[in-house]
Amino acid sequence: MLLQVLGTAAGGGLPQWNCACPGCSGARAHPGRRRRHASLAVRADEGRWYLVNATPDIGDQIEDSAELRPGPGRRDTPVAGIVLTDAELDHTLGIARLREADGFRVVATAQVRRALTDRLHLDDVLAPYTKITWRGLDVEPEPLHPGGGVEVSVVPVSAKRPRYAAETAATDLRGADADGLGDHGWVTALKLRDAATGRCLLYAPALAVWTDAFQEAVESADCVILDGTFWDDDEPRHTGISTRTATEMGHLPIAGPLGTARRLAAARARCLYTHLNNTNPLTNPESQQHALLGSWGLEVAADRMVIEL
Ligand code: MLT
Ligand code: MN
Ligand code: ZN
């Protein structure tokens, strides 16, 4: 299975357009520290790629990768579709940028689909431009692309709704329990498995709770790319971006007693952090936290990283 890391930043990116915090200023001074919004590309079949989440950077992310650029025909594209972990704006705004396509697939849970169609009205807005073909996501593995060798399934990790859909009750969403995930389908981790080799990637850019099912998924994965939004639980408060803790914002922190790093210590998989917020000290490769993470055997994912599983 072939994967490309297209971006590794949380909402806003690094630098964020209206922010002069140390992380954003550092990325302006050192272009090597810049990070695009978190996204991944997975080769579902020969010449057929799916993007995991559609970010505001999607156009540049496609253009930057030789495998994702169009050709040989004028309007041939290897980008067959999008698979979504959640309905957050930093993971979905890029869908509208694909409107020049004749059509593309969007693979999402019922909750995520309903948020995008009933709240953002993506279906109605894009219908005059392109044809979206929706496909469901379930805890049971299904081929990501018809006939392709990569299977996808989900592990529910949070019932947190995007702010624009905060009042959405499960019952407001027509057919929202169609996939049996109900309220737990709002934020999911994706399991991408190569049916031929059995090799598996677990991708969880937002992780609010470490459930038994998530633990099992970590144990059976060959590579884990997970939520590295905040270094510690108090970071959103002490940096002044929120009155809530990281956990209250739906992101388990990396360090500390309830942090994810301790839980990953026993994992056999290669483990990398993504979705870094601009407040995260890991955005500075010279920080002591960066060295500490390395000493724990854990990595920070980098934009343009290629992972072959
Ligand atoms: C998140 O990751 O928690 C969201 O993207 C935050 C937001 O954009 O409001
Ligand atoms: Mn986000
Ligand atoms: Zn900043």
Explain what you see.
With 309 residues, this protein is an alpha/beta fold. It has a single domain (2-308), classed as Ribonuclease Z/Hydroxyacylglutathione hydrolase-like (Metallo-beta-lactamase, Chain A, 4-Layer Sandwich). The protein contains nine helices and 14 strands. The chain has helices at residues 22-29, 58-63, 89-92, 110-119, 122-126, 212-220, 235-238, 260-264, 288-295, and strands at 2-7, 39-45, 48-52, 79-83, 103-107, 131-135, 142-143, 150-158, 187-194, 200-204, 223-227, 270-274, 299-300, 306-308. The strands form two sheets. A seven-stranded mixed sheet has the order 6-5-4-3-2-1-14, with no helix packed on it. A seven-stranded mixed sheet has the order 7-8-9-10-11-12-13. Strand 4 (79-83), helix 3 and strand 5 form a beta-alpha-beta unit. The longest helix is centred in the middle third of the chain and has 10 residues, at 110-119. The chain is globular, with a radius of gyration of 18 Å. The relative contact order is 0.16. Residues 10-11, 88-90, 163, 206, 249-250 line the site of D-malate.
